[in-house]
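Quick note —
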Amino acid sequence: MFELLREGLPLFFNFQSVLLTVLGIFGGLIIGVLPGLGPLMGIVLLLPLAFHLPTIPAMGMLIAIYIGGSAGGSISAILLRIPGTPLAAATLFDGFPMAQKGRAQDAVGLAMTSSAIGGLIGGLVLVFLSPLLARFALRFAPPEYFAMAVLGVLTIALVSEGSALKGLLMGGFGLFLSMVGTDEFTNAYRFTFDNFKLSSGPHLVAVVVGLFALSEIFFQVESGGYLAKPNVQRLRISFAALGLLMHHKVNLVRSSLIGTFFGAIPGAGGDVSAFISYAAAKKLALPGEVYGEGAEGGVVATEAANNGCCGGALIPTLSLGIPGDASTAVLMGALILLGFFPGPDLFRDHPDVAGGIFVAYLLGNMVLLVLGTVLAPIFGSVLKVPKAWLLPAVLLLSTLGTYSLQNSIFDLWVMFTLGVIGYVMRRASYPLAPLIIGMILGSIMESNLRRSLLLSHDGWQIFVERPICAVILAIDLILLISIIYSTLRSSRKIGHS
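Predicted structure written out below.
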């Protein structure tokens, strides 16, 4: 545990890494505050920039955006009753009533401090468990990696919003995109349609930016209200929330651990953990606390779980190469683009890089504790920015960032095409996260499947002859049956209605 941190400290502690981590928290908070954006959008927008940076500064910046964006959504939930991100949906239950009672300052302060400390607790679990899980995963060979890749796609499909079958179909679409380009075993072109620019497949960054950023722009344009400026309560700098938080120590630790646990389950997400933490806090409420009417414990529970979930989601991402959610899927893709593959090999061959990522995560939460409080007035004012200014800025950043990857107009066409596809899919209630995860895990799945068959003397039997692989495949089968069952049950309900 501490060896990794010790190896990562020299790699992280330089001016560039620290500065970018601080700026990442600042930018993540702003993006989280703005309704409709969130941490995923922040990571997507700055992914092209990260591509040109050294590994640790780049990952420090992206992880900081992840942390800040997860916390920032609470500010708009408290002040406007509009969650900046789905993660903050449960925060408005008590955060907004606190604001109505003239305690907006206390609510925002509790949200920021709870998020930071919850993230730190999740980070400690991350630092402790990830090496242990990676050490176990060193027993993995190609069959096990194939089974784990299948598990990642099925898990995300099962727990994604809406129909599990739609999630599985989007995961399949992602698998197809991963096969576009040059076959790594035969060097043959696949699905390139005689276009040389597709020989390496569509660039992951262009796909991600188009799928999430551009489709969101289309939705925001469709919704209108370009010049609307909501009335927002004025906030001030105050550390009084730290004193209030001390009255909820048990709730804070319990909710952080709940968030970390559900974060470590691929696909569960921070919104699930927030609602479960809220329910647990409500059941075990302190005397005199009435939840739903401005209870401090409600804000503490949801926000501690939100950012505790960040640390939890990074556990399977870094140790097994299985993304915990859509944001960590993009973080995993960024790490791969930078030349490092998440999984046990990362801890074995590059412990300094793994340690540097841990240090960046822990420092990011410490910075959040300070900046979330000191700059609260600024973040509250950000809510007054009209769409007419915001949307062109997002479009400009998306276009410039995507073009700068390879100085290629073709990447812009990929971005635009995936933006249209993302918009259409969202309109049809198809989740987008499984597509990205399928695209990232697709190459891992295919290459390890083919390596397994090349190593095997008994054909497909290699997958059941190895105990660990057999167990993982059994879990895969259970998940697939669950997807089929849930689909059939929902179709019967529609038929009866």
